ATP-grasp domain-containing protein
Amino acid sequence: MDGLPTDERKPVALIALASSADLHDHPEVKLLAEALAGLGHEASVETWDDESVDWHRYALTVVRTTWDYTARRDEFLAWARAVPRLRNRADVLAWNTDKTYLRDLDQYECPVVPTAWDVDDSATVEALADHLGVSVDEQEWVVKPTISAGSRDTGRWSSIDDAVAHSRELLAAGRPTMLQPYVEAVDAEGETALLYVGGTLSHTMNKSPLLAPGEGVPAEREARKRITTSAASPTQTKVAEKALRAARKTLGGGLDLLYARVDVVTGPDGSPQVLELELTEPSMFVAEAGPEAAERLAGAISTALTSVGRA
Ligand SMILES: Nc1ncnc2c1ncn2[C@@H]1O[C@H](COP(=O)(O)OP(=O)(O)O)[C@@H](O)[C@H]1O
Ligand SMILES: [Mg+2]
């Protein structure tokens, strides 16, 4: 052996970080590109829908800040299927870009926030309230499109009629919907994001609440977002791992997830429920988590390079 650390012996790899056109300077990609450079790789931030990009040049393409895809999901998934050596894989993205995946988690016994789909009458909400043992008038409700990100078109309602009207409006525009009880603990404690890198828990963050009581659907909530470091309890970790296991069971064995974020909230009985499993383009909060987070992600990308030859 020549005594050099493994990374110095490796040939430099070209890695694409896929972004939307306006987010090339986002810390999520910049810090990761720097950490990859530290390992001897060359990272290039590319716009996912830029037709002039030759994705075949890259040893690996990592989906990162492609946060403009939700209105063009079909186009995004067609792009993902055409890119060689993509992480996470295109089939993962196809499953994960529609929140109906929560049904699969539920089916594999992972606790999720209770959800009714495509609600177009109050009877469905009353049935859900009955099932949950809550009073329909005292409960607040959240309505969101099943394909969405960044809380766009998401509403918090104190009246069931307003919630149903919101769902109907989205349905009339051809957008499938979901309705959930507003999880009250979010107001006091926010949500807990467990960030997995290369299949291992890397860091845990707390996200502040985003929806205000009775506000309906305001256009912009970015300014409310506060991200702080946190710690996951054993029960939260157990639930997050159930979510990842359910993803593996649904998508088939041999699934290697380069990155994953599991957002959990505290349900009315005090136990964690999954609000979102993000396997597509999660913010990994690398700027907020400290330098080790980007370094761990870069390390996992380096490791993934050894398996893509077989992808
Ligand atoms: N059922 C709910 N109870 C409490 N807060 C919710 C609920 N659903 C969504 N939210 C709030 O809205 C935000 C966005 O919803 P989420 O399901 O995470 O979708 P996305 O982040 O993809 O837009 C969450 O971060 C949370 O603050
Ligand atoms: Mg979210």
